[in-house]
Amino acid sequence: MDTASRVTVDELATLIIGVLALFLGRWIRQSVPFLRRIDMPNAVVGAMAVAVCVLLLQIFLHIDVVFGSRTKDALLLIFFTTIGLSAKLAALKSGGKPLAILCLVTVAALVAQNLSGAALAAAWGAHPAYGILVGSLSFVGGPGTAMAWAKELQAQGLQGAPVVAVGASTFAVIVGALISGPVTGWIVARHKLHGQSGGDADVTFAPPPSKGAAPVPDSGQIESLLSTLLVLSLAILMGEKLNALARDAGLILPGFLSAMIAGVVITNVADAMKHPLDFAPIEKGGAVSLQLFLVIALMATPLISVAAILVPLALNVAIQVIVTVSIAYFVLFRLLGSDYDAAVTSGGFLGFGLSSMPVAMATMDEVARRYGPSPKAFLLITLAGSFFVDLANAVVAKVFLGLPYFSIVAPASGG
Question: In angstroms, rounded to a whole number, what is the distance separating the alpha carbons of residues 41 and 21?
């Protein structure tokens, strides 16, 4: 009698375990300086702790734990909708030519990462669509984006996509955080660059806080939250309608992508009508939904399956690091003028190109402490990394996956 018994966790219990895992991840990060230093998200740390417990139950007690998924799917829609609502296209104009260069190089990096991933997948004898998953979706996109697309790809027939996404994006978070700082310091030292004031600084050169972040009266706060809830609901509804129209036209769009597009339309129409949305609750809503989505999605990870693909994942990391660092140094740094601002901007690019926006900010902050301030670099990376990167990544991934070479053919049905 070797059959494993199954324990199904309902939606509410799944949510409760997810929140507890977030607190656990925060406690573990505070207790382990290395995890703090590399900016590993609380959600990833806490979810991996839960996944290890689930693995031990599987191995020693033959109990399979199945978590609920409907709450996770709703959180995913909310998160990508908030990204769309944050995408104020008018803000891109303030960056001028350097921002245009950064955005174009970012698109080139997305393409290069996907081509590299696809080449490795082909060499390994795997479906080329896995290459997109371990390419820009994991490295520029991070765990949230990778898991979102993995869910869509698995539904299309790409078996094991969530496992590959978890492994690749977790590697990306760790390695990107370890690589971006030292490489940026090397660029600055090699070219003997420094900021305007030079030397160690006591000030953290972080971007200014978001507008709307100041405290508001309780009634105003409730009204703002209700308005945000209304806008989020409208964007998700518009996304569903957009999805239906696309489906009728023969184009399959992931639900989260159409919701994000709807968010972009709503926020820019609101700006054009001189009624800008309050960004503070949108930002908080996006952060909470991402953390909860991540922890719920990752804690169900079959760790045995991740271990089975460790070698190709490690090779992929090495290739992606070489590709992205080469683009940062030989292309972006030189196009931006090879000066100090260009070096710090390249460091931020490496941060979000290999790991995440928090790593990008932490990398630039550390360089600014040692060599002097670079407000221009912070402005460029904030503008590009806050919303352009996610939009561009979604479009590039969709274009790649729409090509015949990357199409996923579902198992043949009969004769």
Answer: 12
Q: Which helix (H) or strand (E) holds 66?
A: strand 63-66
Residue 39, SS3? coil
- Amino acid letter at 392? A
Give the mean pLDDT of 265-276: 88
User: What band does 198 get if pLDDT is binned at 50, 70 and 90?
Assistant: very low
Residue 397's contacts (CB-CB under 8 Å, 6 or more residues apart) are 110, 114, 132, 136, 137, 141, 149
- Give the integer Cα–Cα distance in Å for 241 and 262: 10
Q: Residue 360's pLDDT band (boundaries 50, 70, 90)?
A: confident
Q: Using alpha carbons only, how large is the chain's radius of gyration in Å?
A: 21
Q: Is 2 helix (H, G, I), strand (E, B) or coil?
A: coil
Q: Which of 114, 157, 117 is nearest to 252 (CA)?
A: 157
Using the predicted structure, report yes or no on whether residue 53 has a pLDDT greater than 80.
yes
Amino acid identity at 370: R
Measure the CA–CA gap between 256 and 262, rounded to whole angstroms. Answer: 10
- Report the 3 state secondary structure along the chain: CCCCEEEECCHHHHHHHHHHHHHHHHHHHHHCHHHHHCCCCHHHHHHHHHHHHHHHHHHHHCEEEECCCHHHHHHHHHHHHHHHHCCCHHHHHHHHHHHHHHHHHHHHHHHHHHHHHHHHHHHCCCCCHHHHHCCHHHHCCHHHHHHHHHHHHHHHCCCCHHHHHHHHHHHHHHHHHHHHHHHHHHHHHHCCCCCCCCCCCCCCCCCCCCCCCCCCCHHHHHHHHHHHHHHHHHHHHHHHHHHHHHHHCCCCCCHHHHHHHHHHHHHHHHHHCCCCCCHHHHHHHHHHHHHHHHHHHHCCCCHHHHHHCHHHHHHHHHHHHHHHHHHHHHHHHHHCCCCHHHHHHHHHHHHHHHCCHHHHHHHHHHHHHHHCCCHHHHHHHHHHHHHHHHHHHHHHHHHHHHCHHHCCCCCCCCC
Give the largest Cα separation in the chain, rounded: 74
Output the CA torsion 337→339→345→349 (10° steps): 70
CB 172 within 8 A of CB 320: yes
Q: Which helix (H) or strand (E) holds 5?
A: strand 5-8
Reply yes or no on whether the pLDDT at 102 is more than 80.
yes
